[in-house]
Write the structure tokens for this entry.
Amino acid sequence: MSSSGSDGLSRRSLLGALAGLPALPGLLAASAPAAAQSAAPLSSWNDGPAKQGILDFVRATTGASSKDFVPPEERIATFDQDGTLWVEHPIYTQVVYCLDRVPVVVKEKPYLATVEPFKTVLTGDFEKIAKLSLHDLEAILAATLTGMDVDAFAAEVSAWIDSAKHPRWNRLYTDLTYQPMQEVLTFFRANGFKTFIVTGGGQDFVRTYSQRVYGIPREQVVGSAGGVKFGYDKAGKPFLTKEPKLLLNDNDAGKVEGIHLEIGRRPHAAFGNSTGDRQMLEYTKAGDGARLSMIVLHDDAKREYAYGPAQGLPDTKVGTFPQALYDEAKKDGWFVISMKDDWKRIFAFEEA
Amino acid sequence: MSSSGSDGLSRRSLLGALAGLPALPGLLAASAPAAAQSAAPLSSWNDGPAKQGILDFVRATTGASSKDFVPPEERIATFDQDGTLWVEHPIYTQVVYCLDRVPVVVKEKPYLATVEPFKTVLTGDFEKIAKLSLHDLEAILAATLTGMDVDAFAAEVSAWIDSAKHPRWNRLYTDLTYQPMQEVLTFFRANGFKTFIVTGGGQDFVRTYSQRVYGIPREQVVGSAGGVKFGYDKAGKPFLTKEPKLLLNDNDAGKVEGIHLEIGRRPHAAFGNSTGDRQMLEYTKAGDGARLSMIVLHDDAKREYAYGPAQGLPDTKVGTFPQALYDEAKKDGWFVISMKDDWKRIFAFEEA
């Protein structure tokens, strides 16, 4: 796990995967019904090697007479979030949150209005915002994700996530989870697995909605984490403040290190979609007995997005999937999930 | 959470509470039957305010029509280990492990045999060992708890804990859990609570036996934690190495910070026995609705130990319980558990 520097928290936590921000979407506020969940296991999956791989793995690890039987208390499955459980394009949801928060932060600290990069963000000019440097983005993440009470932060994120919408579908971000993956979560849990999110995003952020959106409780979310500081308010009541200090950069090797820190056990199954998930998928697959590593390929421009050099497409820097990762997947026996071919539908709101 | 320095891992992790080591017990190897668990809830508790406090709290938080009802997914109870769930005197079990490991480490690195503090530990002269400085102990902890593969470490601890015995009872350390507290764990879980250990000890250490001894899975153990480093062996297989770098000193305010990091939610109930648990008990009690903070007072020299200034006894530095903590407990509405008065029996192997 990389040691903390003196500089910004979720800066590095998010920014490992954040280089090259695309244009920003506008954000509208409204509400929408929660996604419905189908009752039949994996009903949104087409028959094929990916679906069969999941079924075979669960049978092998849970069948009482199977040589690869895993006791229930050891059944751990880990899932990347962005691009694996929900839409990550054109920009990570948490980054949208941070940019949306800038006006609030400037209201509290008016001098920031004339200081870059806040000045540029306040213009609302997405072309200019998209050109901000990594260093600028770090400053924005630090200013919007730290320095406040952890409960106040959670309340703010909850209010935002209940109203912010994705510009392409004009739906809540929380409606844009992949129905086939929701079915995998349900299927694993029905077979005694504990499901964990292991995300490059901030764990304080994802924990605010993980139970409602994925049925995953807060303590089963591992993510990039900043330090918090214990203190007392004037009335002597203890509270925790989010500090601009990075404890865990939960990307790349950091995902495995975060799994060791917060779970303490090698997963039996892991799901990802980009280079940030590579080490987690390798570590999972390298365990004894039956192990399942699966990687989602975004190859469905019509229903969602298609991106990544593995398909001869440009590297958009959000969910990078190079040819080398594809080759490793094939060589090491991971399953590549083709959104186009393996998924009958992408979202719960689509017709099956 | 305190930032990591360049110096020793579990050094500081353990040593927050370790000042003033008492004499070391000898260690014998043998086996003993696992502790039996009574079927009736809290049957090893005498009637009184402490037992009633537990029953009232669980009724208040789980009764469907209670104003303080807590949804099952939010039910979190945290338990300190040393002195709260099992015997901590005369010396923390994990420190005994580290001292026992010194000969093995010296075998791997023979030059250490002539270097202090290893030279002194190898003499086996407990009076001299007990006089080692904090700095010496840090060196021992760093040498015995870091630098190895996480799986190799877990295997070593497992082998040790299956044979090492406490000198007073000549029983496995794992037989020296408090039967009344085992019943609290069982009672809470039967009422939908997730039980977590939150220990100043190393979480990699405690996780090796938590499931078997307490019914608590690895991922529900929060403790002092060093960094781990991801790498590949010569065959290209990924592995994790324990690093001499402290990520989380899970003592004092660090317990609350560790709870935020690995659980992400304020507990509804917390149990401790010393100043190292103070902030956890405060933070728990400061939450909305029904909250339970309980602190074990070691006042039973006959059946276990009596120690601490709150009883006018010397501060042994292992499980410090000063008068101020006792006063705070009374003032803030925590329950003080008297081992002598509240517990019908201490260990499962005693007659009830």
Q: What stands out?
A: The two ends of chain A are 42 Å apart (CA to CA).
